[in-house]
Specification:
alpha/beta; Leucine-rich repeat, LRR (right-handed beta-alpha superhelix)
Amino acid sequence: MEYLERELMRLSIMLLLVLVNVCHGCREQERIALLQLKDSINHPNGSSLPSWEDWDGEEPTDCCEWEGVECNATTRRIIKLSLNSTREYELGDWYLNTSMFLPFESLVNLDLTNNVLLGCIENEGFEKLSRLSNLHILDLSENYFNNRILSSLNGLSSLKTLRLYDNNLTGQVYIEDFDSLNNLKELNISWNRLESIVSREGFEKLSGLSNLQILDLSSNSHNNSILSSLSGLSSLNTLKLQQNNLIGQLYIQDFNDLNNLKELDISRNDLASIITREDFFHASSLITSLKLSGSTTQNFQLAYTSLRLLILLRVELGDEEFKLDGEIEDNSYGASCTSLSSFSDSSLKMMT
């Protein structure tokens, strides 16, 4: 009997602690961390996040209901912080203290887009976030981060999506800075001023990103040499290279090592010709979406060995000439060729 009483007392105390900790919806330590984060965002005299108030009259507020905050319905832990465009531009540059996010142990998605972020305070860089083992999505786009941010992100092995578009990344990016991001599926570093992806040790393949499926390098200054740097991305299915410095002649077989590539965007470059030779058919047989809009391409020649390519291939052209070089092996599928006639403003020529 005495044992049962002790057990009931123990369970009652545990239940009371849980109720106190999850009082009014959210965890107390996370509520405190949010209020500290608000102070940092508004320093020195901003007024953002007015809903982030500790008390509503005589009652504490539920921080799970605050603007930009999403909690797990069961645990009431914060899983998403949408803080895009939160800091007022007039307040000037913001240097981040990433330790402020450590209390959010279940955080999955952190969006800090467009917050005048210039960097992190000393010894408080993004490497601190490696303790957040559930962090899958990190969006730091439309800020002022330079290349130094990349090495601090390298330890975030839990990341599946990393977006850094429209920052101050320039010149060379080192492959080693991505070594530990082996769970990454989407990487967006578009709208920067990047020129190349190189290795400090001369190794030119991004093989560490073995799970990467979407890579957006658009609106940078990459030239044709970027293609060899990408050859280790065996899981890649979407590659965006529009509006770079690709010039001259481009062979689709340059993408042969990208075994799963389905969508390729090389529009708005200065390509004189794009050719697939019959003896290098592998890559072109997999690509189902090829975008060339706004390109200066004058000659597009595609050699094919089976009609399946014609069925799968979707090409977006402006006024350029489109040539298909080959013979249809099975005329029973001839009707499928009519799908190509839907390409507006394009000249289609069958060359046999």
